[in-house]
Specification:
Strand content: 15-25%
Distance between the termini: 9 Å
Strand order of the largest sheet: 1-5-6-7-8-9-10-11
Shape: globular
Oligomer: single chain
CATH class: Alpha Beta
CATH architecture: Alpha-Beta Barrel
Structural class: alpha/beta
């Protein structure tokens, strides 16, 4: 990396192993993702026999990722699994087994290239006891910096007591949490135009943030370090409506937490993946310059194709730009910048 390049940490990148067992054969039922390597440096993600997504070798190859990162002047990528691999719907013992495989893989990449990658684990969140067990292994044995979880866990929103137990354990362990949408609400009602990704995903993230605020999760776990994907989805644009609802119908909104939702702005992190200068400037004004972090969704099409370009294009003061590109991310992860310089 060039000496003059600012420390740049991309908190939102997804990775898969190049190969894993046939899960349908291993577990005895379908619905899992497999990779079909149909040509060099490319594979099809298949859900049983249904096509899900075409991916390139930068989805699994750390060397390809480093090459892309050098091209884009990204110092460090934070690795997390592709959310379709959460598999919260599966039998808990099978999700645990797969989580361990995925977490071991991410940990091995970090160990191989410790200055280029930071790892987040995945958990069998549908079983809080197994999730806490794997969370402890991720942090204490694998050395991962935290975990990635979904915006909901099957029928549980993130204010559910079952989820709270895992979040509390994460706070106690000092593990960062990255929250990413999956299994989008209303997807069956919007099959056209890629709307689950364009409309459902932003709504999912607002659901997660609002559930944690109204449910008192952030109030009860003030030291929890949380970051939300995609600039917080539709939450930032609707905070006025959310606050107004809290004020005019406390009988419906303030039943579990009587603190104004606006009080929590600046108490969690959002990534920068909003694809719009006006929106990113608004996020910095809304959340504060210390709570926005670079996130690109590498290596997928909805991501920022040159990570950090939007941040750099706005003309922030140098100190603010440096926070957004790297410092804030390491504060969220509780890691020292000196190691990566």
């Amino acid at each position: 990396m060039c000496q003059n390049t600012p420390l740049t940490v991309d908190i939102h990148t997804h990775i898969l192993p190049e190969n894993w067992p046939d899960l349908k054969e291993k577990y005895g039922y379908g619905g899992f993702i497999r990779l079909e390597h149909h040509k060099p440096c490319a594979a099809r993600m298949m859900m049983d026999d249904r096509f899900f997504r075409e991916v390139q070798d930068n989805t699994w190859s750390p060397e390809a990722r480093i090459k892309d990162s050098d091209r884009d002047q990204v110092t460090v990528q934070v690795l997390s699994t592709v959310p379709v691999m959460f598999n919260y719907w599966a039998k808990p013992e099978h999700t645990l087994d797969l989580s361990m495989l995925l977490n071991d893989h991410i940990a091995s990449i970090v160990k191989q290239y410790p200055k280029r990658f930071i790892g987040l684990g995945t958990l069998p969140m549908q079983s809080p006891n197994l999730a806490i067990q794997e969370l402890e292994r991720c942090v204490t044995e694998l050395g991962l910096a935290g975990i990635q979880i979904g915006t909901h866990i099957n029928n549980w929103n993130l204010d559910a007591p079952e989820v709270f137990a895992v979040l509390e354990a994460a706070q106690d362990l000092g593990a960062a949490i990255f929250i990413h949408p999956w299994d989008m609400m209303g997807k069956d009602n919007m099959p056209k135009y890629w709307l689950p990704w364009l409309v459902g995903m932003p709504a999912e993230t607002s659901l997660a943030i609002s559930s944690m605020i109204f449910g008192g999760v952030l109030e009860r776990l003030p030291k929890l370090r949380i970051a939300f994907a995609h600039g917080g989805g539709s939450f930032p644009a609707t905070i006025g409506r959310i606050e107004h609802g809290f004020n005019v119908r406390p009988d419906l909104c303030a039943v579990d937490n009587n603190v104004n939702p606006r009080e929590y702005l600046g108490k969690f992190y959002l990534d920068s993946l909003v694809h719009d200068k006006t929106m990113l400037k608004y996020l910095v004004d809304l959340m504060g310059e210390d709570k926005i972090t670079l996130g690109s969704d590498y290596p997928f099409p909805l991501g920022e194709h040159k990570p950090g370009e939007l941040i750099k294009s706005i003309g922030f003061e140098k100190t603010i730009e440096e926070k957004l590109l790297g410092t804030n991310a390491l504060n969220w992860l509780d890691l020292k910048p000196e190691f990566y310089l």
